[in-house]
Input
Amino acid sequence: MKPGISSIKSETLIIIGNGMVGHHCVEQLIERGAMAHYDIHVYGEERQRAYDRVHLSEYFGGRDAESLALCQPDLYDTHGVHLHLGVQVLDIDRDNQEIITSAGRQRYDRLVLATGSFPFVPPIPGAEGNSRLVYRTLDDLDAIRDAAVSARRGVVVGGGLLGLEAANALKSLGLEAHVVEFAPRLMPVQLDDQGGAALKARIEALGVGVHLNRATSEIVPGEEYAYRMNFNDGEYLETDLIVFSAGIRPQDALARSASLEVGERGGVIIDDDFRSSDPTIYAIGECASWNGSCFGLVAPGYSMARNLALQLVGAQHECFAGADMSTKLKLLGVDVGSIGDAHAATPGAKSYRYIDEANNSYRRLVVSADNSRVIGAVLVGDNSYYDTLLQYAQNGIKLPADPSSLILPLSDGAPTLGADALPDTATLCSCHNVSKGAVCCAIDAGCTDLGELKAQTKAGTGCGGCAALVKQVFEHELSARGVEVDKSLCEHFAHTRQELYDIVRVNRITRFDELLAKHGRGHIGCDICKPAVGSILASCWNQPITDPTLVPLQDTNDTFMANMQKNGTYSIVPRIAGGEITPDKLITLGAVAKKYDLYTKITGGQRIDLFGAQLHQLPDIWGELIDAGFETGHAYGKSLRTVKSCVGSTWCRYGVQDSVGMAIRLENRYKGLRAPHKIKFGVSGCTRECAEAQSKDIGVIATENGWNLYVSGNGGMRPRHAELFATDLDDATLIRYIDRYLMFYVRTADKLQRTSVWRESIEGGLDYLKEVIIEDSLDLAAELEAQMQLVVDRYECEWANALADPEKLKRFRTFVNDQRGDPDIHFVKERGQPRPARASELQLIPVTQEASS
Amino acid sequence: MTQLHTDNTARAVSWRPLCERRDLVADSGVVAWLDEAQVALFHLPSTDQGEQLFALENRDPKSGANVIGRGIVGSLKGELVIASPLYKQHFRLKDGSCLEYPEQRLRAWPVRINGDLVEIAEA
Ligand SMILES: Cc1cc2nc3c(=O)[nH]c(=O)nc-3n(C[C@H](O)[C@H](O)[C@H](O)COP(=O)(O)OP(=O)(O)OC[C@H]3O[C@@H](n4cnc5c(N)ncnc54)[C@H](O)[C@@H]3O)c2cc1C
Ligand code: SF4
Output
């Protein structure tokens, strides 16, 4: 020892074990200035300095020992920490406060045990050499690699987490891999029976043999392979090497020989301050036993190391209070996750299960007795659900009305809990105890780069399981501070849609040019802001969109009140409220389609779409339709499209309410409403739900007592189940709620945001919406209803309006100076109807000829 | 007589009537027929450079459909543009070049308003 150094420092601190936790403690000590007080010595039995054991398997995937190291080679040296590698501490002499190594004795004032665990190998006769390998250290892996050189098949004993990881390693070494498990399922600690079964099926599909309910009684020389494992049921399995992964045991040998108290199941017993039964000796990491348990994960170990370091420098620290043992892993390429009370051991716990035998996916959600909180979960096959579930569990977030939605498959991926739903105290990275608040602090201090954030806070650099969540929160918080995402509508308006909406409403602005002059830039606008403002003006004042000041704002579909198709022709969809149509009207549709040679198709929204009309034909066609009593269907607008209904109690033997009547009433009420995006409704006459109302923005399902209201569902590209919003409503209340809900959406959504996405973006989620809409927490309900009433009162069929005004009709000319139609539009017949000709057909087929396809 | 669109007009050109001024729709487009060609006319009564009129080919090169005249007129980074209604790419009103895809280009004609008439010249 250098006397010069030790003389200024008052105490000698010795740390036994240079594994993950011991190293973390050293780092924390250095960071907290402990070098001023302590002369620190670290003894490590392994040859290598501390390395990332969690990612040990990557050693077989091409990473070398150096790249797994947890710090730069000179870190200890630079700070004057004495590191003794390859030196085993043999004993502790507590009376003299000395440790004993083969090199001699060293005195300590305080001693930290961070000796980790060792792999448990059951005492099986014949297990030795290549039939007794383990999977814990770099040296172990070197031994496995050597043994694999001359091997064809390898067996792992133990189907737990680490066993499966070892099996994967054997596979990556080119061996035929088998797993032998004593229990009746894989990962018995983390998974339940179904989860284990799903995992087994997946792993077998990867070509790994799985043998359950097998206890090995002895290992003898084999015939075809080097060894034969005899099982106690008389079966056997031959192999060239055996890796034991039958659990780990806390490395408490030193503590035992020094007569420190150890736990029943092993481990140095510690109190909440990590102190062993000898107050000068502490224990942290896997070797410590707290409250009867040892923690075989890195996060609790890091928490112990951090708080011990704080304590050692006299800073305020947190007492240890147990640890969350939730884990997510990719085992053999299969996602496996386990959270909290995965076995529903809590009294009264209830489970939701999702089993997909086709894809061997399994998810189980365990909720509290009162159905309010997530207390556990099991995931096999898809861990994209993990982060959200973990946050629900850890932060006690209240469950959605339909908890099963948290584990049901969604085509756009697992449900995510918006980053803003997390409280500031929510732990994002449990390895380094980084909370959402800490991430926010870093951002406020100027951090705008994810890499920088990780360097500063260490978030996501432990086991890495939280990386996606950290990124999500980081980006969300950045954009919340206006850093990354510029929410300006476009170069002409430095406002969001919501802000513009408020400006328009509060200042009673009715024209685009006025809004642009007062609140925007330039004279013209563009194809982003014009339609957006057009929609806002329509939502607020509901003036005919063909008015001269409004026309230039509209997309071509709104301008010509029809849907442009790929060849420049339009399709026409008259309103058929609730899908109910008289025979006479049906005949009219047929007659018009026939007269103008239009292609007809029934839409998904229970209407009839007429395709292939040229611009100049639209007024004539609409003239005939309006004469027959039709009105525009707004199929071209970001507005209410359809209210789909089933026949309900009028005809159906199951129906309990008149769903068609309600659908027509709703469609007629909201038909003029322009919104940030299109809106669809569905009304079903009973819970059999034939109208598929739960896939709509507004879903209404009849009950014995009235109507259940569902909101924010979606079909299409990103299907989403609507959420139950209110139950057993009478007609008037139903309509009031829908008025408020839709107007609140119109007011606060972003441009082109469907109700489903809007709902997911709302801070506070469904509960908040219920407060606003049902409980009127913002004192807004009356205003929202009045606004809706204004829109309803001002409704006018846009086509009728346009037909009455020759100036407006001027626009419906293919050529302003010629009567002809567009000569480049060609149709061919297919299945008895016209369809646009393909480029390849243009020269070949005369217009009237039937395409033979 | 106001000469509204000055590009290419330094040379002596012969103007011919295309349609009437009242056929135009302010801040938007209409289409005129010109000897087998389709001309989309965009009338901007009040830009920062005063009243302007532009004439571009009506055919959208991407879709092959004759729809340019039915797009939305706008300005992007100081340039007047028309957004194609089908795939939303933007063409400069002044010369028909495309902002996003240089290989797409619309033919542009010199046009002017002459009294009650819109006149066009062969470029
Ligand atoms: C393959 C594998 C995958 C894992 N995956 C994960 C995972 O995904 N997530 C997770 O949270 N955890 C995982 N773990 C567990 C994680 O690695 C441990 O929780 C963590 O390493 C515990 O740290 P520790 O410092 O307590 O023990 P260790 O890292 O084991 O360090 C203890 C050190 O003390 C040394 N030592 C023991 N006795 C003496 C002595 N008498 N003298 C000197 N030195 C001594 C040992 O040689 C060892 O180097 C995994 C472990 C393995 C093996
Ligand atoms: S939802 Fe009910 S009422 Fe409607 S058709 Fe189906 S079974 Fe009949």
Notes: Confidence is low (pLDDT under 50) at residues 6-10 of chain B. The CA atoms of residues 8 and 110 of chain B lie 7 Å apart. The radius of gyration of chain B is 13 Å.
